[in-house]
Design brief:
Elements lengths: L8 E4 L5 H12 L3 E6 L2 H13 L3 E6 L5 H15 L4 E4 L14 H29 L2 E6 L12 H20 L5 E8 L5 H13 L6 H10 L12 H11 L11 E4 L9
Parallel strand pairs: 1-2, 1-4, 2-3, 4-5, 5-6, 6-7
Amino acid sequence: MDLQLDGKRALVTGSTSGIGRAAATALAGEGAVVAVHGRDRKRAEETAAAIAGSGGKAVVALGDLARDDGREAVVSGVESELGGIDILVNNVGGSTRDGWPVAEPADWGAMLNLNVVSAVHLIGAFAPGMRARQWGRIIQVGSAAGANPPPSMAGYGAAKAALANLTVSLAKDLAGSGVTANIVSPGPTLTEGWREFALSFARSQGMGEDFEAARAALMSGPLANPSGRLAEPGEVAALIALVASPLAASINGANLRIDGGFTPTVN
């Protein structure tokens, strides 16, 4: 299927690994010029080189999106390299100390800053240009934890829930502009970070370094879903690429879950 993305300009934040890297690669594979974002120049350049090696086009945008100066650096870098963007994928995120027993208010503030305020800043920087050109796609990468939060991820879940909420209001604000806003919410996904989490679980349960045993225990226990499997980063990226395309003009204000049915909902 041709997603009609030739010549579109995209910024994918946090795109040097995991879902972000897969999304940047997928968009470039469909013909978009992608700004690869990260804090580490070497990793960002390696990702951009890998995209170029596969026939795609990529530039690098560096900056810490948890900081005001880092956000401004990313915006100015993208404007300098691409002259603006048509597709914004707010993928960067993560958690610090989390969970009710250990997280302090400052930890909650840090998670909201990285996951939510960074997205709001980039939306404010790039949405006006999309509106003026009467075409654009703004996509947040959320999490199943936003709708189905475990107590051990209280702050992270709250931040991802905020992303889902602001996406709906943003879609309404952009009504009639040709710009859509959506959130893609993965469940447990087989990224490098998830592998580290599974290995940490394995050690805590006396399994040593047995990743497969940890995965089986998690997927039959706290992370069980009707599909009986983890999502792959490429699967999440394929959904992001579709939502970013002209073919998705009627997908707007939606929370698109890709979690194997992990989130118990009829919506």
